[in-house]
Write a structure and sequence with these properties.
The protein has 11 helices and 9 strands. By secondary structure, it is α/β, with parallel strands linked by helices. It has one domain: 3-Layer(aba) Sandwich (Rossmann fold), CATH 3.40.50. α7 packs antiparallel against α9 and α8 packs across α9. The longest helix is centred in the first third of the chain and has 18 residues. The chain is globular, with a radius of gyration of 18 Å.
Length: 277
Amino acid sequence: MTDKPEMKVAILDLYDGIANEGMRGFQDILNRYKAKHQLNLSFEIFDVRRKCQIPDHNDFDIYISSGGPGSPLDTEGTEWEKKYFNLVDKLEDHNLSNHPQKKHAFFVCHSFQLMCRKYRLGDINTRRSASFGVLPVHQTNAGLADPIFEGLPDPFYSVDSRSWQVINPNEKRFVELGMQMLAIEKERPYVDLPRAMMAIRFNEYFISTQFHPEADAAGIKSLLLKDEKKQEVVSEHGLDKYNEMLERLEDPDKITHTQNTIIPNFLDQAVLSLQEV
């Protein structure tokens, strides 16, 4: 395996030190992908918010930026965020240059919200109530044609866990920047509220989701079975909703299928472009 080209992935940890399932999910997917395709692939984790750790844009081939707690608005101007966006700018400049090896990046949940703020793609606000569960995500026409969702039904199911949202897409900005909305929140016919954006392709190399494609059924189930989390979900959403979540986690066509599809599809595109070079 040593004769294979080395591929390096940077995982940007935006969880600010709070316990989470996301970081383990990313590592599990990368380890499975590496074994399945017999790649010379390694990854390194950077504690972006707590320790202000940011990788160099030259040192890695692929970047994955995680979800995290708190407001995506209140951190504007902080030292870590300035460095974070500086990295994003450098990756964009690299991809616009004539360098043959492009840098691919995936942005999840909190990172999605930060990037939407950076590009001014819509209104960012708090939800009336926090969204948490295994929920349907609907693809747009652009999403149906995008390789990132190849192999998934419409709608597909994913773990949604957020108090914030990005709504009211600024269509003028989308057109100006050549970006595409790939997925939106489930329809709620009885609630007169705008549907949140759930996935965006910023460009050929940058993709983002508001939901958690790295979440795995076993991890979320063990979290839900903890008394504290159960009480939290039941008080917020009711016992029926809690039981529905557990049922959906058991269904191999829902979370497991999504976890085995979206980030691996992203890696397929990134790895193939690196191998071609």
